[in-house]
Amino acid sequence: MMTRSGKLLTALLLGLSLSTGSMAAEPVTPKLTDKLSQLLKEEMRSVQAAMTAIHSAMVMGQHEAVAENAQRIYDSFILAQSMTDQDRKDLMSAVPEDFVKLDQEFHELSASLAEAGRNENTEQQHKLFGEMTRNCIQCHSTYVSDRFPGVQPIDD
Predict the structure, then answer these.
(1) pTM metric for this prediction
(2) 65-77, pLDDT tens digit by residue?
(3) Distance CA 75, CA 69 (A)
């Protein structure tokens, strides 16, 4: 199971790989160490690949693949294994509390999506995947707008 810091890195990586916007929060990318930036980019590529696989699996009724990929996002094993205590401290000093909340929400959603996959519940998978995508857009438009200026926030 993934640590809180690993989950935080995963959400930040999603933000680094997918978006930006105009939500006026200061981007966190410049505050990251080179190592954290690389780890986050790696993790974001992994999450992006899993999200793509989940979408394909959902539309083909491949529930087991949905569950496996959503669980992989939840576990975010790359960052959990690659971070030192100093990396975790550096990360926590670079990101605001609201970022941590988005990260927690994203991982809770991925765990729920994995469960929906195991239950072969396509409707719930669709709903949760949409919520995860919204979470990605929110994070990217708020915290990595320097990398993805074209991502606009979504009104609730």
Answers:
(1) 0.80
(2) 999 999 999 987 5
(3) 10
> Which among 34, 42, 53 has a CA at the least distance from the CA of 12?
42
- What is d(CA 142, CA 23) in angstroms, rounded to the nearest whole number? 5
Q: How far is CA 141 from CA 32, 82, 110, in A?
A: 17, 26, 20
Determine contact, residues 51/14, Cβ cutoff 8 Å.
no
- Which tens digits make up the pLDDT trace of 105-122? 998 999 999 999 999 999
Half-sphere exposure of 105 (CA within 13 A, CB side): 17
Q: Give the CATH fold of the 4-143 domain.
A: Four Helix Bundle (Hemerythrin (Met), subunit A) (1.20.120)
Q: Which residues contact 92 (CB under 8 A, 6 or more apart)?
A: 5, 8
